[in-house]
TrEMBL record:
It comes from the Bacteria. SUPFAM superfamilies: Periplasmic binding protein-like II. It comes from Fervidobacterium islandicum. Transmembrane segments: none annotated. The lineage of its organism: Bacteria, Thermotogati, Thermotogota, Thermotogae, Thermotogales. This is Extracellular solute-binding protein.
Length: 462
C-alpha cells in the first residue's frame, strides 16, 4: 500500500511538472499595454503552457531597466519595442544573445541580412527587429494629375525627382514642403557604402569625404537654389513677428498650410507621421527617396527592436514570445490583424505597422491593408533597405554627430563654409570620438561575454 502511494505521488509530481504553465514577463510602453495583451492572447493560443504578464517600462526602456536593477528587482524576460541606445543595456550585461535560437530556424531567412545583423556585436545577436519605419516622400496624386504629370515609377531617379519638383514649382504651387535633414538621409542613398550622415557601418567610421555626404549636400543645395521650390523656405518668422507678410503667406495665403491645402506636390516625411498623414484631404502615395541609377535602390529604414534579458529563468519560452513579436509569420500576421480591427478612416487603415520579415504569409496579408501602395511595394523590396537610425547601435554617436558634425552641417547649409573644405577635418574629429567610445564599449562587452555563462549558471541553479 505504501509503495503504491509513493508511485502515485511520483506520477502526480511528474504530471504537474509536464503540464504546469510557465509565466514570463514582458515590459511594454504604457500606451501599448492593451494592444500587447491582445498579442499575448494570440500567442497563448499557440502556446497554451506559456502565460505572458506585462509590466510598464516607465519612463523609458533604459531608465526602467536601470531602476529595476538599482532596486534589486528582477528584470522582465522580454523587453518589447525599444528605440533607445542598445549599447547601454548590452554593456550592463542585461541582454541574452539569441543566436542559439536563430540557428536552423527556417523563418529567420525571411529577415533581410541588414536587419538581422543590425543589433550584433562581436558576432552575437543582442536584439531582433520588431517594427520598421520607412523615410521617404508622400506624393500628392491629385496635384500630380492637376499639373498634367504622369505618376512616376517607385524606382525613380534623382534626375526624374528633380524634373517633377521643377515642373510643379509655379506661382501657385511648390515642389516639396521642406528639405530639413534631406542631405543627411540622402547620404545613405547616394553611396553604396554609407548610411546616415555618411557613416560606414562596415568600417565603423564616418566617411564624409568619399561617402554620400558631399553628393547629398550638392543635391540639396541645387534644389534649394530654385526660387519657390521648397515651400517652407519661404517662411520668415522675423517678418511675421513684426506683423508683416512673408513670401510663404504672399504665395499661399496668410493662414495657409500649403501642404495640407494641396499646394505642394511632395512631403518629406516618414511612416511614423501616419496619424496625421492619413487625415490629408487628397489622394497620395508613398515613395522611396530617389535613387542613383549607378547605385540602384537603397531606401532608408528606421528599426525598433525587442530583446530578452540575460536573467530570464525561461529562455526557450521567452524566445518563443520574442520571435512571435518579431519574425514569426503567425505572430506578425496576428498583430497586423489586431491593428486592422481598429478600422478605417478617410479610406485608410487607422493602425498598422511595417514588419521586419518578407515571409510570404506576411506579405500576402500586408497587401490587403488599406495603406499606400508604395509601402506595400517597399516591403517586397525590404532587402534593399538601409538602416539610418545608427544612434541606436553605435557607441559615441550622439557626441560625434551633435558636437562635431551637426555644427559644421549648419554652417554648410548657411553657406558659411564649403563642405569639400571641412569634410576631412570633420570626419577625423568625429571618428576619434567613435573610436574612443568603441574601445570603452569593447572592454565592457568583453566583461559581459565573460560573465554571461556565470549568470546563466546562477539563474539555472547549476
Amino acid at each position: 500500500m505504501r509503495k503504491s502511494f509513493l508511485v502515485l505521488m511520483i506520477l502526480l509530481v511528474v504530471s504537474v511538472s509536464i503540464f504546469a504553465k510557465v509565466t514570463i514577463t514582458a515590459a511594454v510602453w504604457s500606451w501599448d499595454l492593451e494592444k500587447y495583451k491582445k498579442i499575448a492572447a494570440e500567442f497563448t493560443k499557440l502556446y497554451p503552457d506559456i502565460e505572458v504578464q506585462f509590466v510598464v517600462n516607465e519612463p523609458d526602456v533604459n531608465g526602467f531597466l536601470t531602476a529595476q536593477v538599482s532596486a534589486k528587482k528582477p528584470l522582465p524576460d522580454v523587453i518589447v519595442q525599444s528605440w533607445e541606445a542598445l549599447p547601454y543595456p548590452v554593456s550592463q550585461g542585461w541582454i541574452y544573445p539569441v543566436d542559439e535560437f536563430l540557428k536552423n530556424d527556417p523563418d529567420i531567412k525571411y529577415v533581410p541580412k541588414a536587419l538581422k545583423e543590425a543589433f550584433m556585436y562581436n558576432n552575437k545577436t543582442y536584439a531582433l527587429p520588431e517594427r520598421l519605419h520607412f523615410q521617404g516622400i508622400y506624393l500628392n496624386l491629385d496635384l500630380l494629375k492637376k499639373l498634367n504629370l504622369t505618376k512616376p515609377p517607385y524606382e525613380w531617379s534623382v534626375d526624374m525627382f528633380k524634373t517633377y519638383l521643377r515642373r510643379s514649382t509655379t506661382r501657385e504651387y511648390s515642389g516639396i514642403n521642406h528639405l530639413w535633414d534631406f542631405d543627411n538621409v540622402m547620404a545613405a542613398v547616394l553611396n553604396k557604402n554609407t548610411t546616415f550622415w555618411s557613416f560606414n557601418p562596415s568600417k565603423w567610421e564616418f566617411d564624409l569625404v568619399n561617402g554620400g555626404w558631399l553628393p547629398a549636400i550638392k543635391l540639396q543645395k541645387e534644389l534649394k537654389s530654385i526660387p519657390g521650390l521648397v515651400s517652407d523656405d519661404l517662411k520668415n518668422d522675423e517678418l511675421r513677428n513684426k506683423g508683416q507678410m512673408d513670401d510663404y503667406q504672399k504665395k499661399f495665403g496668410k493662414d495657409a498650410d500649403a501642404f495640407r491645402e494641396s499646394k505642394v506636390l511632395m512631403g518629406l516625411h516618414g511612416t511614423w507621421d501616419w496619424s496625421w498623414i492619413r487625415t490629408l484631404p487628397w489622394n497620395f502615395d508613398f515613395y522611396p527617396l530617389p535613387l542613383d541609377p549607378k547605385i540602384g535602390l537603397r531606401f532608408p529604414v528606421h528599426v525598433n527592436y525587442a530583446f530578452m534579458t540575460s536573467t530570464t529563468k525561461y529562455p526557450k519560452e521567452a524566445f518563443l514570445f520574442l520571435k512571435f513579436l518579431t519574425y514569426d509569420p503567425r505572430g506578425v500576421v496576428a498583430r497586423l490583424r489586431i491593428d486592422n480591427a481598429n478600422g478605417v478612416e478617410n479610406g485608410w487603415n487607422i493602425d498598422w505597422f511595417i514588419p521586419a520579415t518578407m515571409h510570404p504569409d506576411v506579405i500576402k496579408y500586408f497587401d490587403t491593408l488599406k495603406i499606400p501602395d508604395g509601402v506595400k511595394w517597399l516591403l517586397k523590396k525590404l532587402d534593399k533597405a538601409v538602416r539610418v537610425d545608427m544612434w541606436k547601435t553605435v557607441p559615441g554617436w550622439d557626441q560625434a554627430t551633435w558636437d562635431v558634425i551637426f555644427p559644421i552641417s549648419e554652417k554648410v547649409r548657411k553657406g558659411e563654409v564649403q563642405p569639400e573644405v571641412v569634410a576631412a577635418e570633420t570626419q577625423e574629429k568625429a571618428n576619434k570620438i567613435i573610436k574612443e567610445a568603441w574601445a570603452e564599449f569593447s572592454k565592457k562587452l568583453a566583461e559581459v561575454e565573460k560573465k554571461f555563462p556565470e549568470i546563466r549558471k546562477q539563474v539555472e541553479g547549476k
